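User: For a benchmark we're assembling, each entry needs the component sequences followed by a predicted structure for the full assembly. Here are entry 17's components. Please fill in the structure.
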Amino acid sequence: MAEIYVNPQKAKEFCIEAFEVLGVPKQDAETVATNLVEGELRGLGSHGVSRMKFYINKLEGGGFNPKPDIKIIRERPSMLVMDADNALGAVAGTKAMSMCIEKAKKTGSACAAVRKGNHFGIAAFYSMMALEHNMIGFATCNSNSLMAVYGGTSRILGTNPISIAVPAGKRLPLVFDAATSLVASGKIIVADIEGKPIPEGWAMDKDGKSTTNAKEALEGALLPFGGYKGSGLSIMVDVFSGILTGALFGLHIGELRGSPEKGQDVGFFYGAVDIDSFEDVNTFKTRVDQMIDELKASKKAEGAERIYMPGELEFIKKEANLRNGFKIGSGVLKDLMDIKNKYGLKSNPEEWLEV
Amino acid sequence: MAEIYVNPQKAKEFCIEAFEVLGVPKQDAETVATNLVEGELRGLGSHGVSRMKFYINKLEGGGFNPKPDIKIIRERPSMLVMDADNALGAVAGTKAMSMCIEKAKKTGSACAAVRKGNHFGIAAFYSMMALEHNMIGFATCNSNSLMAVYGGTSRILGTNPISIAVPAGKRLPLVFDAATSLVASGKIIVADIEGKPIPEGWAMDKDGKSTTNAKEALEGALLPFGGYKGSGLSIMVDVFSGILTGALFGLHIGELRGSPEKGQDVGFFYGAVDIDSFEDVNTFKTRVDQMIDELKASKKAEGAERIYMPGELEFIKKEANLRNGFKIGSGVLKDLMDIKNKYGLKSNPEEWLEV
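Assistant: Structure for entry 17:
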């Protein structure tokens, strides 16, 4: 199978066109398209245009609401609760994080909770919104249950990612963004679409036995990262994103890949911390740079060529992907062509190919 | 070596007497003693009376300030920065968390940062302060560098713990409290005091090779939990606790075990989230109970007899330790007897023994 490189701008236009055909207002379509393409650019194809198929199914089936009535249902100086009314995740997600940042400007720190949300792409998309405001951003969401709790084999927890973004000075920002599973489910979904095996240790089949078959893994359960610690963090993400927000949690969450008529009711939880309230911003950034320099000057472990900071690899990939296009598999290309053909889109994925 | 069980109340009285002899006001002495004994009760001997030796050395040498002038140096509706003036960690730590909780009552959520702090015991001591206020509590601190960054072998990061406490209804609260190292350094310190080996995989020696010798491990480096994810979280804890607070970070932090004349200048970062602002408290607690019930009903993995929630094991241990006394090693007992003899304390550790 040949490697297929895709022009990011054209991919974005395709997504916008598809969303608009399904009734999504232009500005919202742009937000979601930007979010998906940003996932691809950062090397996370699992959170990129591979999800279009599911987004389109949900819009078509009524599970995702193209014209949601998004409401703030509770609000105090340093918090808000948003009812996303089954919006596309990125539409509600960017609104909530913007409001969270505005509140943090006034009080020093703030949180935002979103209920009735849907798949929101990469968590770093939201935490990183804080960077240009000289804030530290925090983002979590829960997701439909694909993972076991430590000590169990049932699918009971989402992959529940955590992202934290910190501005630096001359250095790249620090951007932590990780699923609390050993791997993000998206990687297994892509392996399934492309018919490829997955490495040993990522997942169990439905009988609790280790498997390298992506389809079996999707029917079984992922494992948390770092044993009981990752499992505990995943539970906490579900408390913040699912319970505190008033969204669903654990095994109750709607899936992205099926039930086109049903919203997922996942929740997002955001935080913004205004650096200038705590410390002179330049001093803060200079010290972050110093920390990075010192961490990178560590004696390297056997086999390590370079010490990467959180998010550094994603910045490197983004630069390369903007230059060369991002790579998709032929399974994803076929899904996109199916969308083009079904809705008679002008944008033609087969013409994006750059290599 | 016989197992030595100790009466918690008597151990607390000993700590209070020792602190008072070294100039600590009674109320502060009680706070720190409660903190250390709470560590023991929760089964974390690594964060208990084994630390008395180092606390006393620091108080005697001037590194810890028995009568600190604790000041709030920056404040907004949802944040504060405290200069702890080299206070005993638990003295400044409890004050800062109390203020953080009061702010969260008024705005819905708040953060507190502490600089010029010292070793503060178990992080859950602070996150759990939020529980009786129907809040979610969050606590981190940094610590002197004992751990390698992912890909490195140099000692460059602290064990930088994270604690999150969530109130439940009929169930026990969820209390996550974990070092971002594979194990807390205190466990290796206790192994060193007791002359015992440590398991393979916990640490590297100073040449970056795996070791089971506690002394070599303390000269070498611990490993982060969960590979690059735990390493990234540890970096983030250092950003919040060390850089944002204006304390020291990474390799600059003073050690607890040496330099009696020097404070550590570690930082603490706290958060409090007022549940009632987001969601009816009873609904929240009922849903947390439901989540716990569902997680515990998971099909169990081979070898797992029970599925534990974050902090559950510590509650079980506390109940047993309150009933039977907590266990210390003969090395720790000797350290405590040395303190008794040096300062002519009335309280006699050898008389605490219950078994």
